[in-house]
Amino acid sequence: MINKTEFELGYTPKNLRKLRNQYNLTKTKVAEITETSSRNSVFNWELDSDNNYSQTMPHHKWLMFLKYLESLPPAHQDGGAK
User: Fold this and answer.
1) Which tens digit of pLDDT belongs to each residue from 16-26?
2) In terms of DSSP H, where are the helices of the chain?
3) Exposed/middle/buried for 73, CB within 10 Å: 0-12, 13-18, 19+?
4) Could you report the per-residue pLDDT of 38-68, keeping only the tens digit for each?
5) 80 and 25 in contact (C-beta within 8 Å)?
6) Which of 39, 44, 68 is nearest to 56 (CA)?
7) The CATH number of the domain where 37 resides is what?
8) How far apart are CA 28 and CA 46, in angstroms?
9) Closest among 33, 23, 19 to 61, alpha carbons compared
10) For residue 13, what are the contacts with CB-CB under 8 A and spacing of at least 6?
11) Alpha carbon distance 72, 75 (integer Å)
12) Rounded CA gap, 13 and 11, in Å?
C-alpha cells in the first residue's frame, strides 16, 4: 500500500521517482503500465521542472500508474524485500 503521508499531493517528478524506486520498477515498466510508447517520456516526467527537457506526466497516466500500484500485493513494495 502507498504511504500517502510521505508524498506531496498528486503527481510531481519527485513522487514518480520515489514510487518507481519504492516498487523497484524500471522506466520501461512504467512506460508499459501507462501505455506510453517510450521510456524516454518517463525519463522526462521525472526531471525537475527547472530542466528544459522536463514534461508533465498526463493526469490520466498518473492515475493509471497509481491504480497499478494499488493492485500489487504488499510484498511487491520495496522490491519484495521485507
Assistant:
1) 999 999 999 99
2) 13-22, 27-33, 39-45, 59-71
3) exposed
4) 999 999 999 999 999 999 999 999 999 999 9
5) no
6) 44
7) 1.10.260
8) 13
9) 33
10) 45, 46, 47, 48, 49, 54
11) 8
12) 7
Three cell numbers written together for 29 = 515498466
* Number of domain units in the chain: 1
- Quote the cell numbers at residue 25: 520498477
Cell numbers placing 80? 519484495
Domain with 53, as residue range(s), is 9-72
- Whether pTM > 0.85 for this model: the answer is no
Residue for grid cell 510508447: 37
Contact by Cβ (8 Å): 25, 57? no
